[in-house]
C-alpha cells in the first residue's frame, strides 16, 4: 500500500554515511575516548558543537511511498541557493553558549540583522555564508574563554 509523505532533504554524502556500520564505529570510538578521559562522570566537560546551514532553496514537495514509512528522504544539492550558517554549542549539563551566525555577504552584518538575536550572538560574514577556518578560529577562542576552567 502507498501513501503520500513529505521527504526530508538528505545530501548524497550524508546518505552514504548514515548506515549502521558507520554509526556503530563512530560511537565505539567515542566511547573509548570518553572512557580514557573519564568523561562519563564529568558532563560539564562534554560539549556538542554543530553547524547547520539554513538554505533558501525550495524544499521538495510531497512524494508517494509505502504506507508505514515514517521517514522519507529526497536527495538535494547543498550547492544551490544562498546559505546562512548557524553554529550552536551546548554542554551535557545544559550550559548553552551564544550562537555564531554567518551571513553570505561581503560587508559587515547590519544592525537590523541582529535585532531579536540571542544576547552575545557572534555575527560574521563570508562570501558564501559558510563558516571558514578564520571564522571557526574566532569562535573557538570565544568558546575557550566562555567555558568553565576545568578541562578533560
Automatic annotation (TrEMBL):
Domain DDE-1 as annotated: residue spans: 84-147
GO MF terms held by the record: nucleic acid binding
Source organism superkingdom: Eukaryota
Protein name listed in UniProt: DDE-1 domain-containing protein
Organism from which the protein derives: Amphimedon queenslandica
Amino acid at each position: 500500500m502507498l501513501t503520500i509523505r513529505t521527504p526530508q532533504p538528505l545530501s548524497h554524502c550524508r546518505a552514504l554515511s548514515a548506515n549502521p556500520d558507520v554509526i556503530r564505529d563512530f560511537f565505539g570510538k567515542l566511547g573509548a575516548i570518553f572512557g580514557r578521559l573519564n568523561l562519563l562522570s564529568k558532563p560539564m566537560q562534554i560539549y556538542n558543537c554543530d553547524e547547520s546551514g539554513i538554505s533558501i532553496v525550495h524544499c521538495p514537495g510531497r512524494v508517494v511511498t509505502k504506507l508505514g514509512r515514517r521517514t522519507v528522504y529526497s536527495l538535494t544539492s547543498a550547492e544551490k541557493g544562498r546559505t546562512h550558517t548557524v553554529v550552536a554549542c551546548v554542554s551535557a549539563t545544559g550550559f548553552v553558549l551564544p550562537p555564531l551566525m554567518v551571513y553570505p555577504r561581503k560587508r559587515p552584518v547590519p544592525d537590523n540583522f541582529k535585532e531579536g538575536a540571542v544576547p552575545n550572538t557572534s555575527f560574521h560574514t563570508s562570501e558564501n555564508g559558510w563558516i571558514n577556518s578564520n571564522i571557526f578560529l574566532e569562535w573557538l577562542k570565544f568558546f575557550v574563554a566562555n567555558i568553565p576552567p576545568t578541562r578533560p
